[in-house]
Design brief:
Blueprint lengths: L21 E2 L6 E2 L2 H11 L6 E2 L6 E2 L2 H12 L2 E2 L6 E2 L2 H12 L4 E2 L6 E2 L2 H12 L4 E2 L6 E2 L2 H12 L4 E2 L6 E2 L2 H12 L4 E2 L6 E2 L2 H12 L5 E2 L6 E2 L2 H12 L4 E2 L6 E2 L2 H12 L5 E2 L6 E2 L2 H12 L4 E2 L6 E2 L2 H8 L8 E2 L6 E2 L2 H14 L9
Antiparallel strand pairs: 1-2, 3-4, 5-6, 7-8, 9-10, 11-12, 13-14, 15-16, 17-18, 19-20, 21-22, 23-24
């Protein structure tokens, strides 16, 4: 069932660790006061007074939300660049920044720039350490109430946003909206450098950083390896800390990567669907893995080295090859500060350096 975007409801997101004795019997959310629970039940789980859109299956808790939603169907607020429609003019104005690339709000601490002042305010909390919204189940804290609300669905397995085409369900409305573009094959965000199109503006930005930029501002504090995005660095650090944030709901096994969890669920618990190659019947955990594999059967090598005629099936293979033509060394031994082009080389060196320094005990790399 589709509802309006996740609400920032302060009654459901207390900013402290007070006892929460009142429990919702539908979704197991907990509250400090009884009237907070009643308010939650009337807002979340009572559908008698909801208002339905006559042109799609979305439903809303008030006439105001419905009237705002109808602007999408009337094309009242339409982007002239990608023809995407919005509920309100301020949403359209905000969206237009994705085409202009303008980021007028700058963080005074790290210099990072943002399109909206609200985004800058949220980012500033990462420097101040202000993360007041805490999950009572696992203790994870968030800077925004809406993010805690979404996080709680990890524990409750609640997926209230359902696709009316394929019945796939999602934890938040933005994921559903992105998914719906797959059915419409809508890809409104076009790269100005290579004309590749994307269904999300964030994917376009990631593509431009990964493919068309050599800037690597994020450095690993353990080994010195540099990354283009903070997300890539966060994932990499797990190699050193041995953090395993993905846990199996059926057993006690934990995993470092989501892909490992997905494979475990398929192999050990028969949960999910394998992606099988039509030619050799090899099985894959994700569709992109299968698509990449299929290129090898077709002999397609779309990634061309700009320094020599060699071609490759994947961007990762091309990236590895390009180091042959470059003097850039991104892997560093943090014991002696010697740099290497390839990760296997620094791993072998580090083991020797570790023993030569007279160190003992386990190490992660």
């Amino acid at each position: 069932m589709n509802t309006e975007a996740d609400s920032n409801d302060i009654t459901e997101h207390p900013r402290d660790d007070k006892p929460r004795p009142y429990v919702c019997t539908v979704c197991d959310k907990r509250f400090t006061l009884k009237h907070h629970l009643k308010y939650h039940m009337s807002r979340r789980h009572t559908e008698a007074n909801w208002y339905s859109c006559t042109q799609c299956e979305k439903r809303y808790r008030s006439k105001l939300y419905l009237r705002s939603h109808m602007n999408v169907h009337s094309s009242k607020y339409k982007c002239t660049e990608c023809r995407k429609c919005f509920q309100r003019n301020q949403f359209l104005t905000r969206h237009k920044l994705s085409h202009s690339g303008e980021r007028p709000f700058e963080c005074s601490v790290c210099g990072k720039r943002f399109k909206q002042s609200a985004s800058l305010d949220r980012h500033s909390r990462s420097h101040s350490g202000d993360i007041p919204y805490k999950c009572h189940v696992c203790g994870k804290a968030f800077s925004q109430a809406v993010r805690l609300n979404r996080h709680m669905r990890v524990h409750t397995e609640e997926r209230p946003y359902k696709c009316h085409v394929c019945d796939k369900a999602f934890t938040c409305s933005t994921h559903l909206n992105t998914h719906m573009r797959l059915h419409a094959e809508e890809r409104p965000y076009k790269c100005s450098l290579c004309n590749k199109c994307f269904n999300k503006s964030s994917n376009l930005r990631k593509h431009q950083r990964h493919t068309h930029s050599n800037r690597r501002p994020y450095q690993c504090p353990y080994c010195g390896m540099q990354f283009k995005t903070s997300d890539l660095l966060k994932c990499h650090v797990r190699v050193h800390t041995d953090a395993k944030p993905y846990s199996c709901r059926h057993c006690s096994d934990r995993f470092r990567w989501h892909k490992q969890l997905k494979r475990h669920l398929l192999k050990s618990h028969n949960e999910g669907t394998w992606f099988t190659c039509d030619v050799c019947e090899k099985k894959f955990v994700t569709r992109p893995q299968l698509q990449c594999h299929s290129l090898r059967h077709e002999g397609v090598k779309p990634y061309v080295c700009c320094e020599c005629p060699k071609r490759f099936c994947t961007a990762a293979e091309l990236k590895c090859h390009e180091l042959v033509h470059s003097d850039y060394k991104q892997f560093c031994c943090f014991l002696c500060c010697k740099y290497f082009k390839h990760k296997p080389n620094v791993k072998r060196h580090f083991k020797k350096c570790f023993k030569k320094a007279g160190l003992s005990g386990p190490f992660l790399f």
